[in-house]
Amino acid sequence: APFKLAIIVGSNRKASINRKLARALAKLGTTSFTPHFVEIDDLPMYNQDLEAAAWPDTATRLKAEIAEAHALLVVTPEHNRSIPAVLKNAIDWAARPSGKGVWGGKPVAIIGASPGGVGTACAQQHLRDILGNQGALVMGGQMFITWKDGLVDDADTVTIDATRAFLQAFMDKFAGLVGKLAA
Ligand code: FNR
């Protein structure tokens, strides 16, 4: 596959529905993307004191993994009508030190799953704004996935045909955008 895709899941819980969705998207994107999951649950809470004194290895790793990717896919839940703190923490680390962030110019696709019908709409809106301010090239459009048990099976396959087609179109659209930007 031509493009390296860094996938960030905005949840740190083991049974995350967004991680399941992310695995399914990685599988749907295999013609265009080689996926790599970027873990964010091992980062310390951002503290500017650490920048000078003890910049963490985990933050170095995070930045390197984002920097070397052609594109980013952020699959995130919504917490209290915004992005989870663990995701904001990762965004803050990878934006530092000032002027040396790694978000600028990166094509980003945003999607999220929630058990609730309008879930992740506010989180996605905030995320678009935050990453846009970092200079990321966030793909337009809205992708809210209402989660039902069994939507993604143990082989990372989307079990509902219409949803699978919808998610395939999303990955194809993103691959098209990344291809245009790489040209
Ligand atoms: C939630 N949840 C939630 N859902 C939603 O659609 N909008 C919201 O604002 C919130 N707020 C919220 C706050 C907190 C602190 C928690 C723990 C949960 C429910 C959420 O969608 C559900 O727990 C998902 O399963 C979270 O995604 P992961 O972690 O399974 O990927």
UniProtKB/TrEMBL annotation:
Residues 4-144 form the NADPH-dependent FMN reductase-like domain. GO terms for molecular function: FMN binding; oxidoreductase activity. GO terms for cellular component: cytosol. It comes from the Bacteria. This is NADPH-dependent FMN reductase-like domain-containing protein. It comes from Bosea vaviloviae.
